[in-house]
Amino acid sequence: MGRKVSAAEAISHIKSGNRVIIPECCGLSLTLIEALIEDKNRLKDVEIVGGLQIEYKFLADGLEDSFSYRTWQCHPPIRRMVKSGRVKYMPVKRSEAHSFFLSDGPFPIDVALIHVSPPDELGFCSLGVSPSIVFPVAKEAKLVIAEINEQMPRVLGDCFMHMSEIDYFVETSRPLLEQPPSKVGEKERAIGRYVAELIPDGATIEVGIGAIPEAILQFLGSKRDLKIFALGVDGIVDLVEQGAITKSIGSPDQCKVVIGEVLGTKRLFNFLHNNPMVKGETCPVFSKAIAGIEKFISIIGAIEVDLTGQVNAETTGGKPLSAVGGSSDFIQGALSSPGGKPIIVMTATTPDEKQSRVVSQLYPGSVVTHSRQFVQYVVTEYGIADLRGKSLQERAEALIAVAHPDFREELWKEFNKSL
User: What pLDDT was estimated at residue 250?
Assistant: First the structure.
């Protein structure tokens, strides 16, 4: 059974040179991170491992000798640190990220800092809003330190750790980090309307973060029997209240909302708490589960798409901006799903409207996140490009039709030069 200690004492068991995994998104353990930073003078060369974070205080200036970050999510706030090596970005599929940190992986974890709900009567704590990667890794960590937070929602599913698996714990009652919904503009609303046309009743939807996913959810209120997979956002609560996600409960394998991470507010946390409609899930299960889901709709953001259908969702100007994340798993899952649809979404131009995101060729140095043979639908505010079974010329025609009108003539010229 774990021992109750202060945050400072818990962190004192971490040694210089250790590799330490932390939860993601709204699940970051603020109390333990604060104590870790406070102990900066003792700790040297500690490699922190994690994904997308709302804040990165452990990477603040002045902490360079103490902490570095190994991550599978190259978020814009930390992009500048990739060049220096302080942030080690791993371009890997999200479903495989956990495997690199298991005991037989190339970067085994020494310490897991987890953030959990209070134990139930049997001593089990829920990993709450961040089970997807930290849970399977913590199961094999040499040392497990937990923040047991009274305000962490108890999310159901196979993501519970028993008090006997925790070495040291700190008890707190403090609000979780929150991520308010993004502001939605007219372009995003137009994209949302088009994507909604592609989503049938009974679909299972995977959406990411940002204004376009928010807009898509806003146009699904009239749908029925929808399900959500992978990321928890506030828009889910709206869909339940509108009747698009029904409150009827089936077996645990038929939960209406399956989440691996959460980016939302207290409104969402309250919805998730002890809700039998909701199931927390881990990344090892994601990739196996998706292909068996009927009408699985993956909605993936892109930075640019060339006229053959190749998608760059990771770099801008040839430099890292985002990550592979779960997009490869989700696209492959949608292609394998009976009635499934992989959908790529983006605005037709960059925010300053000076560059088209439908391009004749990807920018030199850009990565191909998704090969053209896996891309079916591309949606911008100008419509839907359906690339299924189309020739190279037919693909170009469909993509130019959803490009900004100011760039269409030039795109045609560039395409004709390539023939």
Answer: 55
Distances (CA, A) of 287 to 53, 333, 343, 387: 23, 7, 18, 25
Cα–Cα distance for residue pair 278/239, rounded to 1 Å: 14
Compute the C-alpha angle 59/28/89, nearest 5°.
Answer: 50
pTM more than 0.85: yes
Tokens coding 33: 């991170």
Residues 125-181: pLDDT tens digits? 999 999 999 999 999 999 999 999 999 999 999 899 999 999 999 999 999 999 999
**pLDDT of 288:** 67
Higher pLDDT, 317 or 272: 272
- Conformational region of residue 46, where left means phi above 0, alpha means psi within -120 to 50, and beta covers everything else: beta
Average pLDDT, the chain: 93
DSSP 278-305: EEE--HHHHHHHHTTSTTEEEEEE-SEE
CATH code for the domain defined by 186-418 = 3.40.1080.20
| Neighbour count for residue 185 (Cβ, 10 Å) | 13
Angle between helices 186-198 and 211-218 (to 10 degrees): 60
Residue 74: per-residue pLDDT: 85
- Report the DSSP pairing between strands 319-320 and 311-312: unpaired
3-state SS, one letter per residue, for 38-57 = HCCCCCCCEEEEECCECCCH
Sole residue written with tokens 């209406």: 256
CATH 3.40.1080.20 domain extents, the chain:
186-418
In which residue ranges of the chain is CATH 3.40.1080.10 found? Answer: 3-172
CB 22 within 8 A of CB 113: yes
Q: Are strands 315-316 and 319-320 parallel, antiparallel or unpaired?
A: antiparallel
Please provide the CATH number assigned to the domain covering 3-172. 3.40.1080.10
Give backbone dihedrals phi and psi of 261, rounded to 5 degrees, phi first: -145, 165
Residue pair 348/303 in contact (Cβ under 8 Å)? The answer is no
Residues 226-250 have a mean pLDDT of 89
pLDDT above 80 for 321: no
Phi, psi of 15 (to 5 degrees): -110, 155
